[in-house]
């Protein structure tokens, strides 16, 4: 990360960070602060909220208004923050397990309401912090500490799930495609409504080791070779897409935003009381 961004946006007194060697989460954190820097937002006008997990340690290193909440509940806390402070830019950082397992219902309903919150999902396909349990995004037949014979579940597509539930902006990129990822995060932050960027990361310690994917460099190459642009995926058969995932902008539309709807409701009720 450029030193100017470190000095401006990082709580350097909290370093060294707790992420394992080779973890991709620092790359995503850099993309978030880079995107905010491009927008020129004042730090006091930004609030970053997290739940529990490796990803959710990021706000501790970022010098904004920050809140480290309970497992899976980051979006519930963030919803309250946004309703009480509609002008605040609220960003949620969450892991694949935190956002789509215990926090799955909060994700669905935040998307359904189209509340103006941007969620960045750090997806490393595993519960890294708590022992390597398989998560809703662990690919079928891959291993975790709770799937020692291979995971037989089909995995969630988090970005598609959010879009189907009502999010007005969704995109997916990876820590290999950093300029693209930063661009999508910037567009998500600009969106007036619920936006989500799924950032594919790596966990050499808990996921890569169990699945014999090599070191961090090998895993980044694995991500590079598994990512297929949305436009190209539309020309490929289902057999050709086995073991692959799409990257790109998946949804960008408009819909009424929740806090604005809420304010209009209050205004209407006050007018009726005064009548």
Can you put this structure into words, describing what you see?
The chain is α/β, with parallel strands linked by helices. Helices cover about 40% and strands about 15% of the residues. The chain contains 12 helices and 8 strands. The chain has an 8-stranded mixed sheet, sandwiched between helices. Helix 2 packs across helix 8 and helix 6 (about 105-115) crosses helix 7 (about 160-165). About 45% of the residues are buried. The mean pLDDT is about 95.
List keywords for this structure.
275 residues; alpha/beta; 8 strands; single chain
Please tally the β strands and state the result: 8
**Alpha-carbon Rg, integer:** 19 Å
- The topology string of helices and strands comes to HHEHEHEHHEHEHEHHEHEH
Major sheet description: 8 strands, mixed
Percentage of residues in strands: 15-25%
Strands ordered across the widest β-sheet:
2-1-3-4-6-5-8-7
How far apart are the first and last residues' alpha carbons, in Å? 58 Å
As residue ranges, the low-confidence spans are none
Report the average pLDDT across residues.
Answer: 96
Principal-axis shape:
globular
> Which structural class fits the helix and strand makeup?
alpha/beta
The tally of helices reads 12
Helix content: 40-55%
